[in-house]
Specification:
This protein is of the alpha/beta class. The protein contains twelve helices and 20 strands.
C-alpha cells in the first residue's frame, strides 16, 4: 500500500480507448490528466466533446497539435507534479492548454510557465473547448465525424467512474477544494442513471461512484425526484445496482443515513458492493476539531460495529492525516489505538502538508518533518499488520473477482469486491487462466495471502 495520494495516472492520451487513426489533416489533441478520479472524469468529458467536434486523440506528444494538461492542486506536492507535467508537455510539444484545479490559480501557472496557451479552472468545459478552438481550429468532416456511440474512456473498458456531484459544503481547514470547485452541486438522478445505463450497455461491469461528498448527494436540490429517480444516495445506489454492474461507493462521509445503505450491501442481489470508502482523517477529538471536522470518533466505532453486524463482509476503506498542526504524541497514540479497535480493511495515510490558501497553515505548533515521517511509518506498520491478518482470514474462501490484466506468462491480475482500482490490493491467479479475458467476473478460491494481496485458483 502506498502513501496517499496514489499515483493516479491511468490518464495519458495513449490510454484513451480510441483505436481509430486520425485521417489526413484531422486536428489532433493530446491529454495528460493528473490527480483524482473526479479529474479523470473531467478529462473524459473534454475528450468526448472534442471527439464529437472532429478532433482526433493523439497517442503521444509528437502526434498532437496541442496538449491539454488537467492539473491537481490539492497539496503542494500535487501542484509541483502539475507544474512538472506542464513543463514536460511544453518541452515535448510546445503548445499547451492548462485546466483543472490548479487552473484556479492562473498566475501560479503562468509565473512558472509563461508560454502556456491558456489556463482554465476546474470543470470549465466550455472555456477549455474555446481555448482548443483558438489554438487548433476544428475541421470536421460532416460525412465522417459523427458523435461517437460511446464516450471517450481513459479507464479500461470494464469499469468506469461515475461522478454524481461537484463541489463540497464542508470547510475542513486543511482543504482548499471548496475554494477551487465551489459548493455542492448535485447532478439530477435521472441524468446519472442515464449515463450509467449507457456505460453498462457499452460493456462496463463496475461503476465507481465518486464526488467530493457522496453522502451529501442531492442535499442542494432537496433530494428532488425527476423522471422516476430521487436524488438521494440510498435511492441512487439502489437504482444503479439494478443495472447489472457492480456499484462501488467512494468518498462517503459517515452521516447517520449511511446506515440505510448497509442492507443493500448485505444483499448480493442488489449490485451494491459491500465496500465503503470513508475519509475519517483522524480519531482524536481535539485534532478533528482543529481540522473543523466532526469529532465523534467513539460514536464512529459504534457505527462501524453496527454496519458489520448487518453486513459482516463489508470492506471499510479510509484515509488519515498524521502530523497535523498541534498533533501531540498522545493524540497520535489515540489514533493508533482507534485503528486497533476499528480494524479497517484498507487504509491510506497522508503526512500533513501546508497548501497555499488553507486555513490550517496558520495553526500553531506545526509538527517537524522527521516526526511526521516517524508517525507515518508507525501508522502504516500497524495498518499493514491489520491488513495482513484480515487477508489471511480469507484463505480457503471462494470470492468473486474481476479480471484486470493477463500478462504474457498467463498470470491474471484481478480485483475482488474488496478492491477498488489503483488504490487497493489485487488477487493473482497464476494457472488455469487460458480461458479468461480482461473484464471477466470469476469465482476464485483463495489459497494464499500477503500483506495487501491474495493468490488463488479459478473454481
Amino acid at each position: 500500500m502506498t502513501q496517499n495520494p496514489p499515483s493516479l495516472r491511468p490518464d495519458l492520451a495513449p490510454r484513451a480507448l480510441i483505436k481509430d487513426a486520425p485521417r489526413p489533416g484531422q486536428p489532433t489533441i493530446g491529454m495528460v490528466s493528473l490527480g483524482c478520479p473526479k479529474a479523470l472524469v473531467d478529462s473524459e468529458r473534454i475528450l468526448t466533446r472534442l471527439r464529437a467536434e472532429g478532433y482526433a486523440i493523439s497517442p503521444d506528444y509528437s502526434g498532437a497539435d496541442a496538449v491539454i494538461v488537467n492539473t491537481c492542486g490539492f497539496l503542494d506536492s500535487a501542484k509541483a507534479e502539475s507544474l512538472d507535467a506542464i513543463g514536460e508537455a511544453l518541452a515535448e510539444n510546445g503548445r499547451v492548454i492548462v485546466t483543472g484545479c490548479l487552473g484556479a490559480e492562473p498566475e501560479y501557472i503562468t509565473g512558472a510557465h509563461p508560454k502556456v496557451l491558456a489556463v482554465t479552472g476546474p470543470h470549465q468545459y466550455e472555456a477549455v473547448l474555446d481555448a482548443v478552438h483558438r489554438a487548433v481550429p476544428p475541421a470536421p468532416d460532416p460525412f465522417i465525424d459523427l458523435l461517437p456511440a460511446s464516450a471517450v474512456s481513459l479507464t479500461p473498458r470494464h469499469y468506469s467512474y461515475l461522478k454524481i456531484s461537484e463541489g463540497c459544503n464542508h470547510k475542513c481547514k486543511f482543504c482548499i477544494i471548496p475554494d477551487m470547485r465551489g459548493r455542492l452541486v448535485s447532478r439530477p438522478a435521472h441524468a446519472v442513471i442515464r449515463e450509467a445505463e449507457k456505460l453498462v450497455q457499452n460493456g462496463v461491469k463496475e461503476l465507481l461512484v465518486i464526488s467530493q461528498d457522496t453522502s451529501a448527494y442531492g442535499v442542494d436540490i432537496k433530494h428532488a425526484t425527476a423522471n422516476g429517480h430521487r436524488a438521494h444516495i440510498t435511492d441512487l445506489a439502489r437504482d444503479l445496482g439494478s443495472l447489472g454492474a457492480w456499484v462501488r461507493l467512494h468518498y462517503v462521509y459517515p452521516y447517520p443515513h449511511v446506515r440505510d445503505l448497509i442492507p443493500l450491501m448485505a444483499d448480493p442481489a442488489s449490485g451494491v458492493l459491500p465496500y465503503l470508502d470513508i475519509p475519517f482523517q483522524h480519531a482524536h477529538p481535539d485534532v478533528l476539531r482543529r481540522m473543523a471536522r466532526p469529532a465523534a470518533a467513539a460514536k464512529t466505532l459504534d457505527e462501524i460495529a453496527a454496519w458489520r453486524s448487518q453486513c459482516p463482509d463489508i470492506t471499510l476503506r479510509s484515509t488519515f492525516i498524521v502530523g497535523y498542526p498541534g498533533e501531540t504524541e498522545d493524540e497520535f497514540q489515540t489514533l493508533l489505538d482507534w485503528l486497533d479497535e476499528a480494524q479497517l480493511d484498507r487504509v491510506g495515510c497522508f503526512q500533513y502538508e501546508n497548501v497555499a490558501g488553507a486555513r490550517s497553515n496558520a495553526l500553531p505548533d506545526h509538527v517537524a518533518p522527521e516526526v511526521k515521517q516517524d508517525r507515518w511509518d508507525r501508522f502504516m506498520e500497524k495498518a499493514q499488520a491489520i491488513s495482513e491478518a484480515k487477508l489471511a482470514a480469507k484463505v480457503g474462501r471462494v470470492v468473486e473477482a474481476i479480471v484486470e490484466d493477463i500478462d504474457e506468462d498467463g498470470i491474471a491480475t484481478c480485483r475482488t469486491w474488496a478492491d477498488a482500482p489503483e488504490i487497493d490490493g489485487n488477487l493473482f491467479i497464476d494457472e488455469g487462466t487460458e480461458a479468461l479475458a480482461v473484464g471477466d467476473v470469476v469465482k476464485v478460491e483463495v489459497d494464499e495471502a500477503g500483506e495487501y494481496d491474495l493468490w488463488g485458483r479459478v473454481v
